[in-house]
Amino acid sequence: MTIPLRPGESVALTVTDRARKQAWLIWSTAVVVYIAAVFHRSTLGVAGLEASERFGLGPAALGTFTVLQIGVYALMQIPTGLLVDRFGPRRVLTAAALLMGTGQVLFAIADSYPLGLVARAVLGVGDAMTFVSVLRLAAAHFSARRFSLIVSLTAALGGAGNLVATLPLTFMLSRFGWTWAFLLAGVLTAAYSVIALWRLRDVPDGVTAPVQEPVPLRGVLRKVAEAWAVPGTRLGFWAHFSTMSTPAIIGLLWGFPYLVQAQGMSPEAASTMLGLLVIGAIIASPIIGAVFSKRPELRMPIAGAFVAAAIVVWTVLLGWPGGVVPIPVLGVAFLVLTVGGPISGVAFALARDYNPMQRVSTASGLVNVGGFTAVTIGALSVGVLLDLADGLAPQQAFRIGLLACFGVLLLGTWRMLVWWRRTRAEVFAAEERGETVPVRLRRTRWDASSRQATAA
């Protein structure tokens, strides 16, 4: 999810009704590709049991599907930013729709585990190319004042793809079966690439698109190292790692099996429960985005409050006597976890704030890797632990398996707190030097030894 342009440095527009209509049309065309990406990314969240039966897989092998797709997504973040810079978002989004459609068609007809893995890898490549392209289009076609709103709306509408991957996909799988359900989704996505190529424009009419020269590999590596050396980038990495991982692991793969096998829910009821993750994120995204825009000094306290609440939620879920959690408690727990996705957007604000413009896309790619690294580690670890717990009652097996989510959350929280303190120390040091800082902060007792924190 790299952000190639700063909102304040987007292409200048003549504010006319025609330009505004064109901007909204282009954005709405592009956001459909992003909705499709979230849908394809989330399909195993409700089709995991069917995939296990179709390919004859245990929990660890099943988890590899999601781990591979998310791992490819993470690895593609920095290359995707370079592709968008080089070829423009119109071409990249068109290619993304084609790749996702092709991957889902392969998944529909796959009758072996290796072919299924190839299909998910192709999906991961296409998925990785969507969000950055949508944001580049938004930066080019909307003013800086509207950019934050567009980002929040994009994230919220992406939840619609997740919602389609719950109840409607469950219905399609039960009514039409594996092959036809996924074949239809793949063909429609690939066909939409024609619309994307036809309707999208990299820049507004009358504006010349900037010419980008190829970047040498050595220059790319130098930019990555420089961005990673910035405390604000490290803070963004661990904030994304901590806030995004739990709702993603639950929504992408393990939530549905947990609710059906460990909690005894019907597939329909489990889909409805998972829908709480989606609906909550859709509602929370614009609200949290508005708060972050108006009160940037509250971004990290809100992220800190969320990870504290998430730790409490996991303690309750994993420690509930007997392992069968009452539905009202599950509903509250899922609603709490759902805001992790919208709050994870703080990572990209940190990347923008603490890096110069020429490094923002690289820093954004790095912080995005944080969340998807956590998802990769967590999803795979849950599968491995479930394999080791084979033979136990489902409630006890999932209690052991989901300890991986708890462990990932604790690791991320610890590192986020460390780099939060170090970033605050950098801000206070910059203020003492008379430099302009992105966010005005108040010193607290926690900052008393900020110099030691910086040196650590």
From TrEMBL:
<protein>
    <submittedName>
        <fullName>MFS transporter</fullName>
    </submittedName>
</protein>
<feature type="transmembrane region" description="Helical">
    <location>
        <begin position="116"/>
        <end position="135"/>
    </location>
</feature>
<feature type="transmembrane region" description="Helical">
    <location>
        <begin position="60"/>
        <end position="80"/>
    </location>
</feature>
<feature type="transmembrane region" description="Helical">
    <location>
        <begin position="177"/>
        <end position="198"/>
    </location>
</feature>
<dbReference type="GO" id="GO:0005886">
    <property type="term" value="C:plasma membrane"/>
</dbReference>
<feature type="transmembrane region" description="Helical">
    <location>
        <begin position="237"/>
        <end position="260"/>
    </location>
</feature>
<dbReference type="GO" id="GO:0022857">
    <property type="term" value="F:transmembrane transporter activity"/>
</dbReference>
<dbReference type="InterPro" id="IPR020846">
    <property type="entry name" value="MFS_dom"/>
</dbReference>
<dbReference type="Pfam" id="PF07690">
    <property type="entry name" value="MFS_1"/>
</dbReference>
<feature type="transmembrane region" description="Helical">
    <location>
        <begin position="272"/>
        <end position="293"/>
    </location>
</feature>
<dbReference type="InterPro" id="IPR011701">
    <property type="entry name" value="MFS"/>
</dbReference>
<feature type="transmembrane region" description="Helical">
    <location>
        <begin position="363"/>
        <end position="386"/>
    </location>
</feature>
<keyword id="KW-0472">Membrane</keyword>
<dbReference type="InterPro" id="IPR036259">
    <property type="entry name" value="MFS_trans_sf"/>
</dbReference>
<feature type="transmembrane region" description="Helical">
    <location>
        <begin position="23"/>
        <end position="40"/>
    </location>
</feature>
<feature type="transmembrane region" description="Helical">
    <location>
        <begin position="398"/>
        <end position="418"/>
    </location>
</feature>
<feature type="domain" description="Major facilitator superfamily (MFS) profile">
    <location>
        <begin position="26"/>
        <end position="424"/>
    </location>
</feature>
<keyword id="KW-0812">Transmembrane</keyword>
<feature type="transmembrane region" description="Helical">
    <location>
        <begin position="92"/>
        <end position="110"/>
    </location>
</feature>
<feature type="transmembrane region" description="Helical">
    <location>
        <begin position="327"/>
        <end position="351"/>
    </location>
</feature>
<keyword id="KW-1133">Transmembrane helix</keyword>
<feature type="transmembrane region" description="Helical">
    <location>
        <begin position="147"/>
        <end position="171"/>
    </location>
</feature>
<feature type="transmembrane region" description="Helical">
    <location>
        <begin position="300"/>
        <end position="321"/>
    </location>
</feature>
